[in-house]
Write a structure and sequence with these properties.
about 625 residues; about 40% helix; single chain; 6-stranded mixed sheet; alpha/beta; 21 strands
């Protein structure tokens, strides 16, 4: 919605433009009227819509045509003033003033116009009969107000309607010629209806209507008002109410009725609550609310975010089988301009025979939040998170973690989402490693190549010390880490080489020395294809000797050959190293960190007891 309103008064000389402005400000008819009033600004706190309002006068004798065009260009709304007792001033509306205001706009948006019939105290009847044909001819005319500057009649109403024409314009919503909602308005209201239809029965129950009413206007409808609404719809729209529930046709009719009765601010309140601009497009502020993510921090969904996306899942799981079919997923995406998740989904999360179970669905949301929080905010906006959850913005569904530096200082991370970069030469089995993480053995993996240049991800949950953590595996391109690149940043690095081809270890060793040797990121060397005979090591350090010299865990063996499900211990080990990076230089297994801590605690206790015994002996 606009932050201020600029109103320009036009019309023939002596129709009372300046008198209207001075009567509004002084609350009395001025005895002396200047040729033109100075620009006046009315503060927001004294206007009905709580928006600062600038009122600009025009005098043909004092201003040039160029100055007039400049004022028209700056105006948000134009009040064309005529004298109700002078028919010539009415005719000039059609022949002079409206063409002057909107004659150059072509097919673009037109400046809204308010017709103002002044000096109603000089005419016993109304001028509306003469004005109605003009209003029918020019759709940009919002309304007509008859007033009297001398008797202070309808002066405040005049400027209220001018404000309303800017803040709640009719033109984007309604076509007066067809007497129908414009397509973009109907499309926006249809999306709002679908978001509010929590059980997807294509109707709004009394409970859903009241939730919608409370979200948009702050309070539910009284039971009698609810019945009155449905009665009006039943009377005017066949099929507008079914089984005592409001259908989409009924919902659209109600908004059409609001506009036809001059209450288009009601429809605008609904549209703006769900993020729409005056152009009936979702605003940038709505889709991308401010969220500061300092360097070294990551983003995760919090309990509010997970609760909301799970409710969306349950809403669209119409058959209640705990998984979304392709049709159910398309239905979920119907409120998006384009589907946010593509055909890569089965290679990224766990799926079940082409369906997306709740676990895989939550993993995908977790991945999007971690990799691109702006996209996550955008998707939550399309799903109506602020409106349906009665929150200020979808940023409240996001948690920003503490800096990685602090995690390293404390020797433990509080993050629930961990990033593992899987690095290795081409052909060592990185893609198979990622697919094994999703439970696919080698014989059941999709061998189709992924698009070059785009990183490949897989995400699943693992248990670390009894706590569930999300682990993201990212397959890093063959050459990206040999160049100067930020791709090395992660919580744990998996350096993979082919155990049957030891020369592939040289690539991993080079990456380790370039990016990880002097840092604090825990690293695990993985010898893939462990089902094949071990190759002969080239001259120099063997993988085991290299790891021992650099105080790294011994290379872990891995294979996804055979019909059985791949062993998941290695993924738990990687996640554990990410959670407890200070223990990564030991032979860290899912429980070895505990043994290490017990040894350390035992040593400390022994030292304390020895010192106490020494003091006792000295005293004795």
């Amino acid at each position: 919605m606009r932050r201020d309103v600029r109103i320009l008064l036009l019309g023939e000389a002596q129709v009372g433009k300046t008198s209207l402005i001075l009567s509004l400000v002084g609350e009395e008819f001025p005895e002396e009227v200047p040729a033109r009033a100075e620009e006046i600004t009315i503060p927001a706190d004294v206007t009905p819509e709580k928006v600062p309002t600038h009122i600009v006068d025009y005098s043909e004798s004092e201003q040039t045509d160029a100055e007039l065009q400049d004022e028209i260009h700056k105006a948000n709304v134009v009040c064309v003033v005529y004298d109700v007792s002078e028919e010539a001033t009415i005719e000039k509306i059609r022949t002079k003033w409206i063409p002057l205001v909107n004659g150059r706009t072509g097919s673009g948006p037109r400046v809204p116009i308010i017709l103002v019939g002044n000096k109603s105290d000089l005419r016993p009847g109304s001028s509306m009969e003469a004005v109605l044909p003009i209003m029918s001819q020019f759709p940009e005319i919002e309304t007509c107000v008859e007033c009297s500057a001398k008797h202070l009649r309808n002066i405040s109403e005049l400027f209220y309607y001018a404000q309303k024409a800017v803040l709640h314009p009719t033109a984007p919503l309604y076509d007066p010629e067809t007497k129908q909602l414009r397509p973009k308005c109907a499309q926006a209201l249809t999306r709002i209806f679908r978001l509010s239809d929590q059980d997807l029965d294509n109707c709004l129950s009394d409970e859903e209507l009241n939730a919608f009413q409370k979200s948009c206007f702050g309070h539910p409808l009284a039971p009698q008002a609810l019945e009155d609404v449905k009665r009006v719809v039943c009377k005017n729209v066949p099929g507008g109410v079914q089984d005592d529930r409001l259908t989409l046709d009924g919902f659209l009719f109600l908004n059409t009725l609001f506009i036809q009765r001059g209450r288009h601010e009601t429809t605008w309140a609904i549209l703006r609550r769900f993020g729409y601009s005056d152009m009936l497009e979702l605003t940038t502020d709505y889709l991308f609310p401010p969220l500061h993510v300092p360097a070294g921090c990551s983003t995760e969904l919090n309990h509010l975010g997970y609760q909301f996306v799970q409710q969306v899942f349950e809403k669209h799981d119409q058959d209640g089988d705990g998984a979304l079919s392709l049709e159910e997923l398309q239905n979920l995406f119907s409120v998006f301009p384009v589907a946010p998740w593509g055909p890569e989904l089965p290679h990224t999360v766990r799926t079940d025979s082409g369906r997306l179970p709740l676990h895989g669905y939550l993993c995908q949301w977790t991945l999007v939040t971690y990799l691109d929080v702006q996209h996550c905010l955008e998707y939550l906006g399309y799903l109506g998170y602020p409106s349906l959850c009665e929150q200020e913005s979808q940023a409240q569904a996001i948690t920003v973690t503490r800096e990685k530096r602090l995690d390293q200082e404390k020797g433990q991370t509080q993050r629930n989402v961990l990033m593992c970069k899987v690095v290795g030469a081409q052909g060592v089995g990185k893609s198979s490693f990622l697919q094994a993480f999703l439970g696919h053995s080698l014989g059941h993996q999709d061998t189709r190549p992924f698009s070059q240049g785009s990183p490949v991800y897989a995400i699943d949950t693992v248990q670390v010390n009894g706590q569930e953590k999300y682990l993201i595996l990212c397959e890093v391109g063959t050459d990206s880490l040999l160049a100067t690149s930020p791709d090395a940043a992660c919580d744990v690095a998996c350096l993979m080489f082919d155990g049957s081809d030891p020369t592939s270890f040289l690539y991993c060793a080079s990456v380790y020395k370039r990016h990880y040797m002097d840092g604090q990121t825990p690293c695990l060397f993985v010898s893939s294809k462990a089902d094949l005979p071990e190759g002969v090591s080239p001259p120099g350090l063997s993988p085991a000797e290299f790891c021992r010299r650099h105080r790294l865990p011994a290379p872990a063996l891995f294979s996804c050959e055979g019909p059985a499900l791949p062993n998941t211990d290695i993924f738990t080990r990687l996640a554990t190293m990410a959670v407890f990076p200070h223990l990564a230089h030991t032979e860290l297994h899912p429980t070895s960190w505990l043994r290490g801590m017990l040894v350390a605690v035992g040593a400390a206790v022994a030292a304390v007891l020895s010192f106490s015994l020494y003091r006792v002996l000295v005293k004795s």
